[in-house]
Amino acid sequence: MRGWRPVLPRRGLRARSVFPSCVFLGESGRDGVSLFPYSCTESSGMEREQNGLTIGAVAKAAGVNVETVRFYQRRALLAEPDKPYGGIRRYGADDVARVRFVKAAQRLGFSLDEIAGLLQLDDGTHCDEARELAEVKLADVRRKLKDLRRIESALAGLVRDCCMSRGKVSCPLIDTLQKQ
Fold first, then answer.
1. What are the residue boundaries of the HTH merR-type domain, all occurrences included (predicted)?
2. DSSP bridge partners of 14
């Protein structure tokens, strides 16, 4: 097998294209030599990669920062595509959907570890397990709401006491917090 070397067009040669990303030069268009050594096989996937999204495009489509995408990759929530030699990584629509899934789960209060668990259940056969995780999260949210209502009630009482104690030297809110 001979090594690849660039061929400069000579008089009498015409360019023809066998594959969309390849240019062959040869006498009357036959027996050509590729000017693109690695992208001329049907199995190279070059066209698919050229049509993929950059990390910036994925971030923009998902409504996040590029660093967020990289962080998700470090946390194994999103796969990092291979980087072609001399090229840039390309992502697909599935990657955008996955980033959106992670953000939606975060908005529901799931931690990144919990989201990783949900992603492992994403084959459609683990609905019961996913429901159990959601039930645990729902119980946690309800407990937090109960705590927030208690805090709201305490703060409302302290604000009310502050309003009623005009002219006193000491503020009831600050007094209460100092005693705690």
1. 52-121
2. 26
> Quick one: which of 45, 100, 60 has its CA closest to 78?
100
Confirm whether 112 is domain-assigned: yes
Which residue type occupies 88? I
Same domain, 42 and 57: no
**pTM score over 0.70:** no
Distances (CA, A) of 174 to 106, 155, 170: 36, 12, 8
Picking from 136, 135, 95, 143, the residue whose alpha carbon sits closest to that of residue 119 is: 95
Burial of 158 (0-12, 13-18, 19+ CB in 10 A): middle
Amino acid present at 84: P
Where residue 75 sits, what CATH number does that domain have? 1.10.1660.10
